[in-house]
Amino acid sequence: SSSPNADMDPVDERFLLQMLERNDITVVSEGLVSTETLDPGLWKLEHMQHSLGGEYYHKFRRFDTTMDENGFEKCREVDSLLSMKIGNYIDYLNKRQDHLSEKLRDPRFTFIDHEGNENNIQDVGISALYMIDMDIIKSLPGLYSNFMESFKFRELLPGGLYCMMNKVTPTARPFMGPNMYVTPPASFTHFHQDGHGTVDSGHLCLNGYNEVVMLRRLTERHKKHALMILTGNLDRKNYFDGLYQVPHGDELGEKPAWPTKDKIEECRQMGYCPTVFILKPGQLVHINKGRLHAFRKMSTARLPDDDCHKELREQLIKERNIKGEQLCISIAWDWMFLGVTARGINREVLTVLEAAILNRKNGKISLAIPEMSLLQMAKYLPPPKEDELPTGMNDMVGFMNTDFKQETDRKISNTTEVCMGILPGLYHVVTEHINAMELAAREECRSYERGERVTVAQRPNTHENPSVCPVDPYGNNDFLCKMCNKELSNVYFHCDGCEKLLSKDFNICRQCHAEKNFMITVQMHPTNPKRHATLNHIGNFRYDRTSRCICKNGPACGFCGYCLGCSCRCHSWFTLHNRLFCREEEQALLHRVVDICVTMNSHHFEGREYFEPGFTKGRLDVASRKFDD
User: Fold this and answer.
1) Phi (first) and psi of residue 583, to 5 degrees
2) Of 103, 214, 415, 434, which has the fewest CB atoms closer than 10 Å, so is most exposed?
3) Contacts of 213 (CB under 8 A, 6+ apart)
């Protein structure tokens, strides 16, 4: 349909969503952007020049192309991000085009960064500058509005109908796009997994061509093995860490060469299901969470015979009569695909929970918020049918008695499928939270010994008066563990010392508290690193001195009674807080989902062993242990 708001046929929509659940194939869709409503004036570089020309942008990556001994182009990514005015970048693109068309002889280009430093590019034809991750919501609101108007399947965007974050308030969601990417050809993004394996992504090509290699979703061990194959490092030397480094980070060092045909074939024989294709203008590719993939912006240069895209490039250039280089423009976003069938939902939920555990072990921040999403999905499950509600309840709302088509008719998954899919993951999350609350309520947590005391807050943050409470439970600030960056969805531990002595938040997860990872020094003062309880988080004091201490850094703390300079225990004492739900409320969420599954006879579901809490716990326990190389 040419109408951007026209509903897809429910049968076709469910089929497409079931295809998105599969990770052994790659789904490329076409026609999801209405060309009738796209405003050309908003998408031209002149509009960007006019609106943002004088503003600095700080995420440009440089790629230099040289010729090897056989006459083939070789592109190398140069370390460090560049900063320049948007207007300067568009001047660079225009100069490159003029130089390559031989309208301009001088290939040099100079620009000034935001600190006033002069940067020189010796040859605009050799150096490709890649603008990455431009937030079009903030920077180009008119263009963003036009994109939203023209994109026909907004349910696949962050927070959309088929996103796990659909029930999470927007202020509590991490930013996931959409972002704009602009670059001349030849630049690339080597193998990586988006959000360190926790998010799906959509990549919409608007102009130019993207050469893509994508593998199926793999286990941690097989991902490492696949990277060793694709990067030619089977000897395990100079390992390319595409799992836990950002794709354009300097930590990755020299990027490996583009995969050859024999490496792709080796991956195919291993069952890694590699997909090799070219994404064309108007096409959208869905990248499932945890799938390794790489992008290369297609140029018209000749490729070596063993390059995995050689035949595809030559065929496309011939079919479309491509001459000269095409500027590559894409819109991309991350999201958390929920799935549509019970089995698919279960698989998506466990995948993201497992990836979040692995990220914590590897010291990486997970972009996704799976625990918060699960709790909110359970909270906002559809209410009972009208005939099950108390008599007269709907009579209090007049418009409820009028005839209208309910939005719930639009849903492809029914409540039972959703409950069956999320139950194992929800059971795992709620059980972990309940265990933490029960431990904190034990008598031994009333101890005044160092690192032992835990107080339980009287009420959840959501029960507080927002007019006077400084904590916003529906925001996304301060709800990451200070030690390991884990998501703090409902239960978290708040440092008493940082609260009482520093008036600052120091929140950690239940795992870091149980492992006593807080018993270290963490600088909280902006400039003073001194080991003093009134300046920084000092959880590793070793002495038990009170007043008139020989360290001369006192006095004694007014809360714990020990010397503030060498013995204070306040930074080893914590208060357990509930962000959203108290214990009874969280248990009620779980029981509600269980009741729906039992009522609808979901225990007869085929393959139900995969939906048992024991299976989920076993899989996530494996993920919580370090993997050997």
Assistant:
1) -60, -45
2) 103
3) 191, 230, 259, 264, 274, 275, 276, 293, 294, 308
